[in-house]
Structure formats: C-alpha cells, structure tokens
Amino acid sequence: MNIFLCILLPVFFLLVRRKRSSDRVPPGSLGLPVIGQSLSFLWAMRANTADRWIAERAKRYGPISKLSLFGKPAVFIHGQAANKFVFTSDDSIMNNHQTESIKMILGDRCLSELSGEDHKRVRSALASFLKPECLKLYIGEMEEEVRRHLEMHWNGKQNITVLPLMKTLTFNIICTLLFGVERGARRDKLVQYFQEILEGLWSIPINFPLTRFNRGLKASAKVQNILKDLVREKRVELESAASSHQGLITSLLNIRGEDNRELVSEDEIVHNIMLVMVAGHDTSAVLISFIVRLLANDPAIYAAVLKEQEEIKKSKPSGEFLTWQDLAKMKHTWRVAMETLRTIPPVFGGFRKTLKDIEYEGYLIPKGWQVFWVTSMTHMDNNIFQEPSKFDPYRFENQAPIPPYCYIPFGGGPRMCPGYEFARIETLVTVHYLVTQFNWKLCCNDNSIRRDPVPVPAQGLPIQIRPK
Q: What residue stretch is flagged as signal peptide (predicted)?
C-alpha cells in the first residue's frame, strides 16, 4: 500500500499543479494542431480585415488571450502597457522571435532572432552605419537613384502603377547605397528571388512543393549564395584596399576585436542583409505609395506638402543636391508620413518568445510560447489619439501628448528599428522629387487595401501623371 502511495501521490500532485497552471493560462483556443488560427488570420490579412479580426478577439476574450499561429501556441496582448512589456522585457524573460517561416527563410542570425549580447553586438554594428552622421554622407547617392528612377520610369509616361515602381526604387537604393551591388544580372536575380521570399515570410511552415513557404525557402537559399559571394568579394577588396564603396557590408567587415578578428560573422552579415532588404524594401515602398494616394485624395494636405517642398527647391541653385539641412526643413512632409504610418502601418505586428513561465495581468504565459503584439491596437485607440480614424498630420506637431509605447511603427525602446533614419531620408527625398516634378491623379477609385503581409493598395495604385 505504501509503495502505491509513493508512486501515486507525486503523480496526483503533478496533475493538480498542471490543472492549476492550465486554469491560469489566458482564455481562448489553440484550434487545430499546427494550423491553429493561422488560416483565418492570413485570410483576414489578405482581405484587410485583420484589424477587425483582432478587435473581435479582444472584445471576446479581453486584453490577453491564447491562440495558435504559424505552428506554435501564442498569447496575444495589446495596449500601451503590453507594448512596453514587449519592447523592454529583459532578455532573460523573453527573446526575439519571429514565426518559424520567417526564421527559416531569413536565417537565425538576423537581428529579429538574436537576443542578449549577440543582439547588442549586431544591433550596434548595424546602427554604426545607419546612424544620421553616416547617412547624411549618402544623401547625394540616394538622390541620384531617385533622379535616375524618375527618368527611366516616370518621364515621358502618361500612366504608371506606383507600388511596383516604388519597390523597384527602394530595392535599387538599398542595393546601391547599402550593399554596393551594381546594376546587372546579379541585381535582377535578387529582385526576382526577394519577391518569392516576401511572399513566403508569413505562411504556414509546411514544406510542400509549390507552397509559398517552399518557394520562399528555395529563393532564400539562392539569395544567401549570392550574398555570400558578395561578402567574400567585399572582403577581398577591403584586404587589398581596393574597396570603392563604403556600404553596410564593408562597414560590418571593418568591425574588429582587439585581436583584429571580425566581430560579425559571415552568416550574421548575410542574414542581416536579407533582413534589411526585406524591412527596407517593402515597408518604404508601401509608405511612399500610400503618401502618393493620400496627396491625390486630399488637396489641402497636398498643397501644404507642395508649398514646403517648393520653398526648399527655390532656395537652391538648379541641379544642386539636397542637404541634411534641407531635410530638416521638411517637417510637415514628415508629419504626413508619420500619420500615414499611424493609419496604415506597414508592419502589422510581431512576436517574441518566452524563456520561462511569465506572470502577466494575473495570467500565466508558459515557457516557450509566442507573445504576439499588434501595431494598430494603440494607433487606433481613441483614448490615445483623438478621432483616430481621421487623417490629421498636425497631431504630430507637438508629440509630447502622445504617451510612450503607443506610436510604434518602428517598434520602441531598445528594440526601435535601427533603419528609422534611413527610411526617413529615403521617403523625404522621394516625395520632394515627386511633388516638385509631377502632377498626378488616381486611375482607380477603389480605396481598398489588402495585406500580404504588408498593406497593398488596390491594383498597385495606378495613376495618370503629367510633368510640371
């Protein structure tokens, strides 16, 4: 009898402990194994009803709930406190984490996956190049890319489709400025493969032939091979002092320890090049495209942006490049961009992963679960932004009333996107040339949006253009 008690009592207490733990897990359902709520969420994203999908979940379960996305259990949290919790939690509690599909396609040594000292080391390396003091030296090169793009794809045309052209522009800017990839076959291949990568990033990680995930994995392998060759070329140029382009790759290779050892590994360089290409290529193209749509739809905002940009243009000799001081004068244009990011954030949300059981708002978030946060929940909260559905760039004239961790298109705190300044410069330079060189009107009255996973305007935003 005693032997049976010795065996059964520990089992009994273990079951009781598990029961208590499961009772404290947030409300909700994990759905079907592997699939969970992934399909319904992705359908909502593509129909641009994901905000409603999330709001209905919050209304049903409250500010914290469990679900399963992309093959793993997750806890959805939202609000200012939730954003702060996500962006400031110690790496011993939660670490950076993306969906399995993103991790497998972009690689496990990119910034969105690294934590602790590795995250600080690689983030510092990226930030050393993306800081304003460095980027201001590249405004002229960025401007040359914009001028060349408009000459090739806008001048002499009557009708164009904005989004694909903006993707072409931002990809060329990244290739030229950050990586020193010359125009030609290699750049053309990268463009093709990256489109397949983007389509596979938010997908169910089941590697069946012809699925988005499968195509994304194959494209990723090809891109990584191209980029490894590029890194080796840059290393040879650096060692022979023949490097003519001090881009991001060269900058990362230049970062050395006391023993002259490279502090950023080849895999870290390659994986973070892919991350920067994905983050900088699609998000900036989407932002500029929606600014173009906004300026066509709102004459008052267009007039204010045009006035600001015309004044800057008139203050400069013809043909002279923009300067850092010129960009600093584009305050209203950037407020318009910020309000566009608030109402249509390119990044819907993100994930982190718990490293231990976490107590949050009276619930238990088990070790190993995903923590899922969504950008729009605070962006469209009328307790934070008065009349949130109204487009009002003047709300950013004085940002003091906006509480911290409520406006998060670039993340927040120690996890603020290091590419923020690059995106700002790229957007302002492009908008300057668009409004001072062209008039346009929309060819499509459909203002609908789908997410795949970034927001896409109907038909890619076709417009009719006329040079000034």
A: 1-21
Q: Tell me the CA distances in angstroms from 149 to 139, 423, 430, one per residue in order.
A: 15, 17, 10
Entry pTM:
0.88
Cross-strand pairs, 370: 74, 353
- Token pair, residue 406, equals 């409520």
Tell me whether strands 370-374 and 72-77 are parallel, antiparallel or unpaired.
parallel
Annotated binding site: 417
DSSP state of 1: -
**CA-only gyration radius of the chain, Å:** 24
| Residues 90 and 354 sit within 8 Å (Cβ to Cβ) | no
Q: What are the pLDDT tens digits along the chain (468 aa)?
A: 454 444 444 444 444 444 444 558 999 999 988 889 999 998 998 888 999 999 999 999 998 999 999 889 999 999 999 999 999 998 889 887 777 888 899 988 888 778 778 878 888 888 888 888 888 988 999 999 999 999 999 999 999 999 999 999 999 998 888 777 778 888 888 888 888 898 888 787 888 898 999 999 999 999 999 999 999 988 888 887 755 557 888 888 888 877 778 888 999 999 988 888 887 778 899 999 999 999 999 999 999 999 999 999 999 988 899 999 999 999 999 999 999 999 999 989 989 999 999 999 999 999 999 999 999 999 999 999 999 999 999 999 987 788 999 999 998 887 788 889 999 999 999 999 999 999 999 998 888 898 877 899 999 999 999 999
Q: What is the DSSP letter of 83?
A: H
260 secondary structure, DSSP code: S
Q: Which residues are annotated as a binding site for heme?
A: 417
Amino acid at 315: S
For residue 251, count other CB atoms closer than 10 A to its CB. 18
Beta strands 64-69 and 370-374, pairing class: unpaired
Taken in order of first residue, the domains within the chain and their CATH numbers are: 37-57+68-403+410-467 (1.10.630.10)
Distance CA 320, CA 168 (A): 24
Burial per residue of 278-309, b for 16 or more beta-carbon CB atoms within 10 angstroms, e otherwise: bbbbbbbbbbbbbbbbbbbeeeebbebbeebb
Question: Three-state SS for 360?
Answer: strand
Query: What is the helix, strand, coil percentage profile of the chain, to 5?
Result: 55, 15, 30
